[in-house]
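Per reviewer request, we include the raw input and output of the structure prediction for the construct analysed in the revised manuscript.
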Amino acid sequence: MFDRLKEQARALQQSQGARAGGGQQHGHGSSSGGSSSGGGSKAQLMGLFKSQLASAKAELKSGAYRDASMAMCALVAAADGRVDPAERQRVEELIVSNEVLQNFPADQLRKRFNEHVDRLTANFELGKARALEDIAKAAKKPAEARAVVQTGMVVAGADGSFEPAEQYAVRDACSALGLSPAEFGI
């Protein structure tokens, strides 16, 4: 799964680089060849998603992207039905240190993320429905919709694994955004 994702991420990165006039499409990302072991592939994949998001930073300044991304982060964090304080803090740190999300004030991001987490932990199904409503708001702009999914995958993969419950959460988000989960290898 991650090899296919990696190839799709490279293709997207190359197309975004060509559109932006950037010349670093191949430089540092090709050292492992076609099949590397699990951890390296996952780390490379998350690095590619981060790079793609960073290259689209100027386009990702809308309130819809902000709200959808915070809902996505909360949905991934709560995918297993619970969010302990350490996990909440770890995801908050990922959010406020994310280059693209720095387009927005950190207090706004924390507030929206925590509101979603609180709803999800109080009543998962109702919280999930609300999170998916906010995620769906980004569907009007395909670049934002894809960036929301990529943001969720970066958060999900930050601990080195992409758990089945997190994959289901990303699939649900894809559905809400009108995107095929296959586009992201899930």
